[in-house]
TrEMBL record:
Subunit annotation: Oligomerization is required for binding to microtubules.
Organism, as annotated: Lepisosteus oculatus (Spotted gar)
Stated name of the protein: Fibronectin type III and SPRY domain-containing protein 1
Fibronectin type-III domain sequence ranges: 164-268
Superkingdom to which the source organism belongs: Eukaryota
GO cellular component: centrosome; cleavage furrow; microtubule; nucleus
Biological function: May be involved in microtubule organization and stabilization.
Subcellular location: Cleavage furrow; Cytoplasm, Cytoskeleton, Microtubule organizing center, Centrosome; Nucleus
Amino acid sequence: MADQKEALRKITTTLALKNEEIQNFVCTVKQTLQNLEGNATRVQQDLEAEFSSLYSVLDELKENMVTRIKQERASRIYELQSQLTACTKALESSEELLELANQTLCSAETDSFNQAAKEIKDSVTMAPAFRLSLKPKVSDNMSHLMVDFSPERNMLLALKFLPVPGTPEIQQLECLVCDNNVRVVWTVPEPDSKIDHYILEYRRTNHPGPPRAKEEHPWMVVEGIRDTEYTLTGLRFDTQYMTFRVKACNKAVAGEFSEPITLETSAFLFKLDAASAHQNLRVEELSVEWDATGGKVQDIRKDKNRTGSPMHSPARTAAMSPKRAPSSRGGRDRFTAESYTVLGDLAIEGGQQYWEVRFDRDSKAFAVGVALRSLGRFDQLGKSSASWCLHLNNWLQLSFTAKHNNKARSLEGPVPDRIGVYCNYEEGLLSFYNARTKQLIHTFRSRFTQPVVPAFMVWNGSFSVQTGLQVPSAVQCLQKRNSGTSSSNASLT
């Protein structure tokens, strides 16, 4: 009977998963239908706009050419009419001289004849007819303004829809996730000179499979990519995976999206556990400020509400992430006395983790490191075997030390305002770096027998934490280089 129930339960689970897949597919098809209607209308409108633009260009070109012909005709008509007027006047003058010459020839008087002949000769010599060019100034040929549109006509007859660019393929083996950056590389099925740019979309997710119809995170869009690769920089990995897809575009149309790929973007993402914080620490998700009146406020509220829990203070309350298990340190077990401490809400149980903290340089005291969850509520960081830290004392005189098990080692060099913390749980390494230059400050070598959590202390100051960071390449390289060397911090481990 139990086996049959288990078999039926498996079948039911399989059927439920199949139903979910079908429902997701139905949603996808409906969305595709809706997109089809909108896209068909859009491309028709775009086509009509392109033809209208082409008509406008042809009309403008025709108007310019007709104007050129009219101007050429007017210019030639003016030249020929001017020449015709000059010839007409010259002809009239010549006819008058010719008539005068005929009359002189008929005269019988010798003296008057000689005088008239001389005058006629002088007039003929100066006559306009002998100064005229008897060749038209301009030609009547207008063939230089003829056009042959046969190539353009053939081109227009061959006009067809612009081919859709091929679907790119993301080369997953060449993609790289490193230093909180993601480099995505893709190829196109065949060379296409008409491709103008690419559009890359990515979406954060918490599952490694293909994208689902219903996702918590929307697609983020990067447009105008000219190369076949792109690097997303300065990311904060607040999910375990990221899904990518890309499509090619030419001047008029976009192709289909590539098959999406999912890249693992694992990083150490935690928040500060307000339930563990000293009452004088005002905690928000990733920032802490020391409040001298915090404890007094808590005492007043305790008397007013008649409860021993300090969780009623709005300054102390912080919402726990739904992905986090409740802290093992209850409200009654928060740090107290001079242990101005707060822990992270996520334990390190394996692997290599990295986070950074930035503190106010005017803080009177500050510490950063890791601790066991069993760290006593009166214990100060570095003063027991359950914690390891860097400690800055800025009260009266400056001191910068590495502390563990109530032993301290002075550290040389300037104190950075931003510290990177690297923890390799299996190898028992806890290293601190200048987060800006990635220069090693100090390394603890130990053996973690229990999970550890990020730990912080501040007095008369404030700090903020940046999580969701991968181990920087520079840190990984330095760790590999130093893995075979002996530690100079053995006395503190």
